[in-house]
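Office hours follow-up: a student asked to see two folded examples consecutively, so here they are.
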Amino acid sequence: MRDTAVDVVVVEGERHTTVLLSGEMDRMSAPAVRCRLLDLAGAASRPLVLDLAGVSFFDAEGMRVVSAAARRCDELGVGLATVGVRPFAAKMFHILRLHERIPLCSSTEEALWCVLPPTDAELAEWLNG
């Protein structure tokens, strides 16, 4: 029997929480990951950034997990964005139209622009940069 566990590492940032996921998001691993992400979303008072670069495989259950986390964040008024989505998973996000409510970002900085109001200093740097 193969190991289908997904590692979940939570990194608390200054203004957001990053959740690093690695492994295979499939029917076997989805229930545990769903519970963990919903708990994190429920306890979050600040935006979540899901870093999916370490996820080597997504099936429909994996997509449902991310969708459920986004739904919980929406209910609680907490922003959620993703980074590191691999091409196959990105294609699934687009086919399922999940990208319309879950930002697929190319970097953590981009994700933060999607889920956090920029500070005055960040706006000034962007305008002058």
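And the second, which I mentioned at the end of office hours:
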Amino acid sequence: MLANHTAGNFTITDFRAADNKFFLYFYSPANLTAAAQNILNTATISGGNTSVMIDGDAKITFLGVTDLKVSDFSIS
């Protein structure tokens, strides 16, 4: 996901933490771990899926995922 291009609802259907990362490009936060944790702090789990908010405008739903971790995100 690119910074400033995040409005809307997005669904990821095949995310597996062992094989994938969710990339956020051009965010350049001062603290990468804290930025990922801030995203995780928005997480809601429902029906075996996890949704997080990015920039307050984008809802990302990971189907079949209930255990997202900071290490599942890559932020640059």
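Two things to take away from it. The first helix runs from residue 32 to 40. DSSP finds one helix and six strands in the chain.
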